[in-house]
Amino acid sequence: MDEHYAMMRKFWQLQWNDRLILFEAILMLALSVIVIAILPFRYAGRLSSLRIARREPLGDERALTVRRVRWAVLASARRVPWRAMCFEQGLAAQMMLRRRGIASVLYFGAAPNDQRGLAAHVWVRDGDIDVVGGESASEFAVLATFPPASADRSGGPNYVHRAGTHL
After folding, report:
1. What residues make up the domain containing 72?
2. Number of domains present in the structure of the chain
């Protein structure tokens, strides 16, 4: 009980804009859980590829926005009472960035795994900046990016056969 009280006390000591972005991150993580659980993968990809209608922030404003979204998603993911792993975190972070005009890319990758046969991982980048999940991205071959770097004829994702090599 003391830990819960301390966490709530800390939350209320934050500035209102920090509380607001944390609340948004919690909502986006919840939406991500629903999208992943209910919708086919291609729809999650389409959600990650929606057109951005806002002005793109530049320079310091952009860097600050990316850092704040990263902080909010990672802090919220550790505290929500449901599973918020890389896929949920990546989808939430990308939706939050795109809402702010930042055209980040969600990467979906896979790698051989001795225990499970195949491990999947999702990470988000803004240009060459890792937003979430990037710390282990180099271990995975990129299978798809959303939005696609270059769409195939069907407009689907950009599938690749090994990391960094586009088909």
Report:
1. 2-166
2. 1
pTM above the 0.70 mark? Answer: yes
* Measured torsion, CA atoms of residues 119, 97, 43, 49, in degrees rounded to the nearest 10: -110
| Predicted pLDDT at 5 | 63
- Span 135-147, average pLDDT: 93
CA–CA dist 121, 115 (Å, integer): 15
CA of 111: how far to CAs of 83, 114, 139, 143, in Å? 21, 10, 7, 10
Residue in 102, 103, 121 with CA at minimum distance from that of residue 111 = 121
Residue 11 has pLDDT above 90, yes or no: no
Give the closest residue to 33 by CA, choosing from 79, 73, 74, 92. Answer: 92
Tokens of 68: 């704040």
Per-residue pLDDT tens over the stretch 114-137: 887 899 999 999 999 999 999 999
